[in-house]
Specification:
By secondary structure, this protein is α+β, with helices and mostly antiparallel strands. Helix content is 38%, strand content 18%. The protein has a five-stranded mixed β-sheet.
């Protein structure tokens, strides 16, 4: 059906006829694999038409396939019938490129909030930026066709897109009887800023800065995935010390996010002590990051060709000492959480995503591991230096808020251990080397296990060395639909707790 060629460590590449896509996807599913990302490209400037790109995780690692699509009306068979997580990706692909998924059950718009007209597609090469002529989009009624639930006692509660807290915007439409949730439907896309369009024509260094800002809480994951893709495309390697420092930054980021979320989970059940203690620890962690690396959230520390900042001996000592102190404090707080009756009552059997549903809908990352989906690229498909580290994957089976909290606790301890090992084995040498000149039009794919799940960045570079097409993919694409599943049957006041137990990115999938 398709010839897959080795492309990079744990990545295989191939091309396929569009009509063969569902059959290939079915084979992947039957063999226990899953869909990761789906996106499109307009390749007219390369003498082609349009293309659809899909990545799957299989026993071989990551499989990246592409299918050529005919202009002027590019289309491909629906893949959501095999992998339901493809649905929203297909809808966004149509909004941005006009690539139609034929046979799709749900063809509603996803990203287009009156920012451009229905017959315009911003990622097409012939799209004329409206800013040039100052013309606003044509007036259009923007009512979104939410799916309605009707019956005796059923009413709707619309929440958002603007929220009371300082969080990103998203609309949540609850259908309830009393306080019991019958259905939740999300509408996102409010943070769409044209990130994919902005990549076009940028130089590689500027692209790295933009990639790291796709979703700010996952800066190191996105920056590393982007740089990995660029380095693949250029055929270059980075110094060994730089690879170890990248892993250090990634684990620092993982710990910071888990500490904050464990505090917020306590706060959402009115346990302010837990909130204050975890955020006190997180603040110590972030302050040391700023002291050692120049930025609390490590922005621009990972750069093409290596890293932009080194670690001196004094900071190495302080960082190792702080990991031991945090490890001990988190263990104490875990005991407090375990013994707090109200917290345990609110966490247990709340927001359940059963393993069977998690597998069917592609739940990934820490939320997936809490529902028995044992995928972690650091352990199963390790890139350097994880191929020299023995990562212990944390999993649970209950799939409730408590399971997701327990996975976070376990990952904090494991990341603290990994950091101490990285600090002890950090090789000497350079931290960066220049990229090789691009060998004409070239492409690469970066794949990193971020704290939320796998982050993927696909890159194509033109013959002049500038970015031609960049697609960043956040694991929230897969996980947002499972939040709709997890809230079913729960009461409305538990939604903030369930939502925080996933803590998904809005901007990461509103590109």
């Amino acid at each position: 059906m398709i010839q897959l060629q080795p492309f990079a460590p744990h990545i295989r590449r191939g091309r396929i006829a569009a009509e063969a896509l569902p059959a290939f996807a079915q084979v992947v599913k039957e063999e226990g694999g899953r869909l990761v990302a789906l996106w499109g490209s307009d390749d007219h400037h390369l003498g082609a038409g349009y293309a659809l790109h899909v990545t799957f995780i299989t026993a071989l690692g990551l499989v990246w396939i592409s299918a050529d699509l005919e202009a002027p009306a590019p289309a491909h068979p629906d893949l959501a019938g095999v992998f339901p997580q493809a649905e929203r990706m297909q809808r966004a692909n149509f909004d941005l490129l006009g690539i139609q998924a034929t046979g799709a059950v749900d063809a509603r718009k996803w990203l287009r909030h009156k920012a451009w007209n229905e017959d315009e597609f911003p990622l097409r090469r012939d799209y004329a930026a409206r800013a040039a002529d100052g013309q606003p989009p044509r007036a259009e009624f923007d009512a979104y066709p939410f799916i309605r639930v009707e019956g005796d006692g059923v009413h709707e509660i619309p929440v958002g897109p603007i929220h009371a807290g300082v969080i990103e915007p998203g609309h949540f439409r609850f259908s309830v009887v009393g306080e019991r949730v019958l259905k939740l439907e999300q509408r996102l896309g409010y943070t769409h800023q044209g990130v994919e369009k902005r990549f076009d024509g940028l130089d590689i260094a500027t692209g790295a800065r933009l990639a790291g800002r796709v979703s700010g809480d996952s800066h190191s994951a996105y920056a590393w995935a982007y740089c990995m893709a660029v380095e693949q495309a250029c055929g270059g390697e980075i110094p060994a010390r730089a690879a170890w420092l990248r892993a250090l930054f990634l684990e620092i980021e993982r710990i910071a996010n888990h500490l904050g979320d464990l505090g917020y989970l306590g706060n959402d059940v009115a346990f302010s002590f837990g909130f204050m203690q975890f955020w006190r620890i997180k603040e110590d962690w972030l302050r040391l990051c700023e002291k050692c690396f120049g930025h609390r959230y490590l922005f621009d520390c990972i750069v093409p060709g290596g890293v932009g900042v080194d670690l001196d001996d004094a900071c190495r000592t302080q960082l190792a000492a702080l990991t031991l102190a945090i490890d001990a404090e988190v263990r104490e707080l875990k005991a407090v959480y375990d013994e707090h009756a109200t917290l345990q009552d609110r966490f247990t059997h709340t927001g359940v995503v059963k393993p069977q549903m998690a597998a069917r809908l592609g739940l990934t990352g820490l939320a997936g591991r809490a529902s028995a989906q044992a995928w972690d690229a650091r352990a199963q498909f390790p890139q350097a230096p994880y191929d020299q580290l023995d990562v212990n994957m944390a999993t649970a089976r209950r799939g409730d808020v408590l399971a997701r909290a327990e996975v976070r606790f376990a990952e904090v301890h494991e990341s603290l251990r990994l950091i101490r090992e990285i600090l002890g084995r950090l090789p000497a040498g350079a931290i960066r080397q220049p990229l090789a000149a691009v060998p004409g039009v070239c492409e690469g794919l970066g794949w990193v296990e971020g704290w939320r799940g796998e982050v993927l960045v696909a890159v194509r570079i033109d013959a002049t060395g500038r970015l031609d097409r960049v697609h960043p993919h956040d694991p929230s694409w897969q996980n947002w639909p499972l939040l709709e599943v997890g809230v079913l049957g729960n009461i409305v006041p538990d939604f903030p707790l369930i939502n925080k137990s996933f803590n998904l990115s809005y901007s990461g999938q509103d590109l």
